[in-house]
Design a protein that fits this description.
single chain, about 425 residues, alpha+beta, Hypothetical protein af1432, Growth Hormone, Chain: A, 4-stranded mixed sheet, 22 helices, binds zinc ion
């Protein structure tokens, strides 16, 4: 039977979790599928390595890490808190394989330079993840269907957060899930920063299922608190770093220009960048999406840099050779000055459409359950010995300071050359409050 465990389990070495343990033939086959192997060729953090040069890890390695955290959670639940021991609040052991599968596949729809690519070509990695899982032409679908005819659909439901068992969905997606715990530790490790670290083993020692989800025992509260603070710091020190955003904007403007030029010179793009044609023409199928990876796009950028379209060549060179745009913070008051800056930039010969950007980063580090908000969050529950539960921010003054307190940074991006003696530009820039 395919659901049975492997006779000899496989161990993969991992810098974050030491070992990743593969116990089921299903998981091994999924890892070996074409669609999963493709994730080796897509960087987890896109353009981040232009700023933190160590951050070259792939979406493949993150996916294995999420699987391993989910596996450890299921192991603890199966050993200590199964429904056999506690019918009301226990864990249903028959959900284990589904949970592990959803953890492994949760990011399989990510594409080349995912977030930037999505903005220009209107693709959606979450929808594509579900498409890969439920489309008969993929290897992943074929493998999942060996479990049962409905299994692919169940995996997609977990990833879309509409699977009926909240314990399963919260392991994969909540304010403290296997996904976030892996990417914080992994991104901290590969960027070389020390912000994202927290005591994962302590958190796992205190994780506990209950009827409506997962909770953490009181003895794990400070480890959970530390995780929230680490997450907050990683967002501001790494994910929202102004130079990382500058490289993303440079990439976005490059793709935008190629998209705009395509109708005027389709022959050129058919020759230099054939795999992008279905995206320029908005006729792409799943197969076209799976043909792309970071390497394919980088090869096209090298072609464009050498090519005949001068602005395209210039923007490709800026991206490949790391010439990020510069930026200034703006507030509501200084927003009106932006048009004056853009005029200066246009006078200096840079098309503001491809050389500027107003960019805002926004994050809400943690929030408790608020039914009135647009994006309702599952709050983190702390479980006491008497069986009572309390929401985390009501116990932790540190988390209370971050709860419901959105953090925002708005910046205007412009070419670095504008800082080289353009007096008018400097005068307007000086009016921005610092
Ligand atoms: Zn992920």
């Amino acid at each position: 039977m395919y659901t049975k465990k492997l006779i000899h389990e496989k161990m993969f070495r991992d810098p974050i979790h030491n070992y990743i343990k593969i116990e089921y033939p299903l998981i091994l086959d999924l890892i070996n599928s074409k669609e999963m192997q493709r994730l080796r060729r897509i960087r987890q953090l896109g353009t981040t390595s232009f700023t933190f040069h160590g951050a070259e890890h792939s979406r493949f390695t993150h996916s294995l890490g999420v699987y391993e955290i989910a596996r450890r959670i299921c192991e603890i639940f199966n050993q200590n808190y199964s429904q056999k021991m506690n019918p009301t609040n226990g864990w249903d052991s028959s959900e284990t394989l589904l949970t592990l599968t959803a953890a492994l596949l949760h990011d399989v729809g990510h594409g080349a330079y995912s977030h930037t690519f999505e903005k220009i070509f209107d693709t959606n990695h979450e929808q594509i993840t579900c498409k890969i899982i439920t489309s008969p032409q993929t290897e992943i679908f074929q493998i999942l269907s060996k479990i049962s005819a409905t299994f692919p659909e169940q995996v997609a439901q977990v990833i879309q957060k509409n699977y009926p068992n909240p314990q399963v969905t919260q392991i994969i997606s909540s304010q403290i899930d296997a996904d976030r715990m892996d990417y914080l530790l992994r991104d901290a490790y590969y960027t070389g920063t020390k912000y994202g670290t927290f005591d994962l083993s302590r958190i796992l020692r205190t994780i506990h299922p209950f009827k409506n989800g997962i909770a953490f025992k009181e003895s794990g509260m400070h480890a959970v608190e530390d995780y929230i603070v680490s997450r907050y710091q990683m967002y501001w020190q790494v994910y929202f770093h102004p130079t990382i955003r500058a490289m993303e904007i440079g990439l976005k403007n490059l793709l935008k220009l190629a998209h705009d030029l395509y109708p005027h010179d389709s022959k050129y793009f058919k020759k230099t960048s054939p795999a992008l044609i279905p995206f320029f023409e908005d006729t792409f199928q799943l197969k076209d999406y799976l043909d792309l990876d970071d390497g394919v796009l980088n090869t096209y950028f090298i072609e464009w840099e050498k090519g005949k379209h001068s602005t395209l060549s210039e923007l490709a060179g800026r991206f490949l050779n790391r010439h990020p745009l510069k930026s200034v913070s703006y507030t509501k008051d200084s927003k009106t000055l932006m048009n004056e800056l853009k005029k200066c930039i246009a006078d200096a010969g840079f098309d503001p459409l491809y050389y500027t950007e107003m960019n805002s980063s926004y994050d809400l580090p943690y929030d408790f359950y608020r039914p009135e908000t647009q994006e309702i969050r599952t709050q983190i529950e702390i479980l006491f010995a008497n069986g009572k539960m309390k929401e985390l921010s009501s116990l932790s003054p540190l988390v209370a300071a971050l709860a419901g307190n959105p953090q925002k940074d708005s910046r205007f991006y412009f070419p670095k050359e504008m800082l080289n003696g353009n007096q008018k530009f400097s005068e307007i820039l000086a009016k921005f409050a610092t």
